[in-house]
Amino acid sequence: MPIMPTHCPSCHEHLKVSHLICVGCGAQLEGSFDIHRILRLAPDEISFLLNFVQASGSLKEMAKIEGQSYPTIRNRLNELITKISASDQTAEEQRHVILDAISKGEISAREGAKQLAEVTP
Questions:
Q1: 32 within domain boundaries
Q2: Is the Cα dihedral 59, 64, 70, 72 positive or negative?
Q3: How far is the C-alpha of 6 from the C-alpha of 34, rounded, in Å?
């Protein structure tokens, strides 16, 4: 089964769900429903979070699972924290959080530039 898209393929804005169907009884709901911010993450980011939970939050265990160094895993987690924290903020607040994370060394300048490019005005 294909994964539900969370961003418009044309303009890249967030999508909303308008129709839900129960697989058990066939009941249908129509309306305008937001997609949870966790589901707006990229598939590899969601996979990382699931592995992190399964590893009981152990960065050392995550390094083994992902085949990466501890500092790399720590940086990936910091990037996700920044991204998740920014999802409920205005564009200006998001920019401030990202720039602050760069200045504190929590994320790389490259990752910060990528995140800044994703912030909608």
A1: no
A2: negative
A3: 10
Distance CA 118, CA 107 (A): 15
The string of pLDDT tens digits covering residues 24-38 is 999 999 988 877 878
Q: Is residue 12 part of a domain?
A: no
The answer to whether residues 69 and 63 touch, using CB atoms and an 8 Å cutoff, is: yes
> What pLDDT score does 87 carry?
62
Using DSSP's 3-state secondary structure scheme, residue 30 falls into strand
End-to-end distance of the chain based on CA atoms, in angstroms? 34
Which residues neighbour 83 within 8 Å (Cβ) at sequence distance 6 or greater?
Answer: 41, 45, 115
In a domain, 23, yes or no: no
Q: How many structural domains compose the chain?
A: 1
Distance, CA of 78 to CA of 18 (rounded, Å): 33
Does a structural domain hold residue 46?
yes
Structure tokens at 69: 């160094």
What domain range is 62 assigned to?
41-118
pTM: 0.61
Mean pLDDT of 94-118: 86
Report residue 87 as tokens.
């999802």
